[in-house]
Design brief:
Layout (H helix, E strand, L loop, with lengths): L5 E4 L9 E4 L10 H11 L7 E5 L5 H8 L4 E6 L2 H12 L6 E5 L2 H14 L4 E5 L12 H10 L6 E9 L7 E2 L2 E9 L2 E7 L5
Parallel strand pairs: 3-4, 3-6, 4-5, 6-7
Antiparallel strand pairs: 1-2, 7-10, 8-9, 9-10
Length: 199
């Protein structure tokens, strides 16, 4: 029996009400609406005309919500084949010309994102939502993620937002970036890092 397609709608902005498909739960874990709402309430005006990088993007629901709310360009990073197929379908109902998809290992592809932003002398918001470390084969995902954040040059980062398991204690500083705030939503927590204070 074919599993029913799960749908999520874009909440606000120029693509409000557009339906996004979600990959199967075995493939990715979709961000809860309450998490998404809190995030966009925090950064709603900051992301207008900004670059937005969604690392481990899955269906792309966070990046496409950012695009709908006025972000200039979205870079999606995903390696799962099913998730990539769904992601490309979702991009097609919004504005493909403002989206770039990097398929493959995010820990490898981050180097080309860094090079691109440096070349264009631009910065970006980095939304990082790795698979929870309780998943098989993902035991060291958070160590890899922290190493990746340390590799980001300060001049290309506007803000780093990590969606992670609430049980994970993140350090007050990672590389050049300081923890600005943390907000818990049950099993999921959003933690913000940057070089300057949140407005």
């Amino acid at each position: 029996m074919k599993s029913k397609t799960i749908i999520k709608k874009i909440v606000a902005g120029k693509f409000k009400g557009k339906s996004l498909k979600l990959p199967s739960k075995e493939t990715t874990r979709s961000s809860k609406n309450i998490v998404l709402e809190s995030f966009f309430n925090t950064l709603q005006f900051e992301i207008i005309d900004a670059n937005f990088v969604e690392v481990f993007s899955g269906s792309g629901s966070i990046g496409l919500e950012a695009l709908s709310r006025g972000a200039k360009k979205i870079i999606f990073m995903e390696k799962d084949r099913d998730a990539l197929r769904v992601l490309r379908e979702n991009i097609s109902v919004t504005d493909p010309s403002s989206c770039e998809v990097l398929s493959g290992d995010s820990f490898v592809n981050i180097k080309s994102v860094i090079a691109q932003l440096k070349r264009d002398q631009e910065d970006a918001y980095f939304y990082i939502d790795p698979p929870f470390s309780i998943r098989e084969g993902m035991e060291d995902i958070y160590e890899q993620m922290i190493a990746m954040i340390r590799s980001l040059p300060q001049e290309i980062v506007k803000r780093i937002i990590i969606e992670h398991m609430s049980g994970l204690e993140l350090a007050d500083t990672i590389g050049e970036f300081s923890k600005l705030k943390s907000k818990k939503f049950g099993n999921t927590t959003l933690t913000y890092y940057g070089v300057d204070e949140l407005e």
